[in-house]
Amino acid sequence: MKFFSSFLVFATMIAVTGCAHARQPNCSDPVTARAEIDRTIHDLFDALREDDEASFKRLTTESFYAFDVGKRFDGTELLDAIRSAHAEGVQINWSIGPIDTKLSCDVAWSAWENIGSAGIPPDLQPVRWLESAVIVRENERWKIDFFHSQRAAKP
């Protein structure tokens, strides 16, 4: 009986106050947040395309890491790897498809398909990647905390 009364008190408290995370006062408008998250993801690829370390650091958290090509990249290691590929003449073209974002106040998970090409011109090969990221809100900005990319299976 004690369990039932404790459960009833807890259930009543939840019904009256709501879940603590359901509506926090500092959460952004979901429509605005999704647009900002989309812009952050697109800006990250612009930074990678341009080998722009300052922008890359502005768009990622201090604890950022990525899984790509079967490896873990910490901090700017992903940017460094892409910068090295660019220095060897490799061109990587990205075209991000619609981004599906699940949002919970100041944390979001996004996934998308990225269709492009990679290689040394004129020998560019079509590539399709499946990608996702965990994005967090820090100091009024959305930043990427984790990024994952893998080549999609050929159809």
Automatic annotation (TrEMBL):
Q: Which UniProt keywords apply?
A: Signal
Which positions carry the signal peptide feature in this UniProt record? 1-22
Superkingdom of this entry's organism?
A: Bacteria
**Name of the protein this chain belongs to:** Nuclear transport factor 2 family protein
Origin species: Pacificimonas pallii
Lineage here is: Bacteria, Pseudomonadati, Pseudomonadota, Alphaproteobacteria, Sphingomonadales
